[in-house]
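Now for a typical sample entry:
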Amino acid sequence: MWSRVTVAMSEYTGASANTESHSKQGLAFKTLSLLLLLMAVLTQSSPMGEIAVWVSLGLVASIVAGVFYFLGNHQRMAFLGFLCAQALYSKAFWLQLEGEIVWWLPALLLASGVVAFFLLLPRIDRLIFPVVIMGMTLVQLSWAAGEVWLSNHEFFSLLGFIGTLSLTVAAVLTALNDYYRALPRGRVLISSFYLLAHLLIVFSALV
């Protein structure tokens, strides 16, 4: 319980500090939050299973990608790191899937992704390919988490699904803030959704 409270407080502090004038503090608290989540996975009381391994690797990839993103001149490495993290999280969810696939869910997620893509298209004309790749990766991640929830209807599976949707919201806000116009307290919003996503994904994997 106390470890979860510590993680939550660290995430809140990181989100509040992550403004343009406190970018170093924001990176430090964000990295600390992810490291605490990683420790929570590695030190869980039950034997570490395959799902926890994939989630741990996803956290490591997220930490590395965040550092590259902060450096500014390593955007390609940051992009690959985020893609890698999403793929690793996806593997953790697909391993939990039981039963038949519900096909309306990927159709709904894909339709939402297409709408978001065309809304952003006037501002991302030079970044169409990476945006499409990122969007497809996020759609299949949310699909995997949603399928797990629909198959077992458990509360923590729902949290995992919400976490993947939060990660998608963070990606959309980042695109708007970086390539459209700066959003009011945009970095705080992005960090909040980003850290909430990791928190919910990790908790869904630990239970």
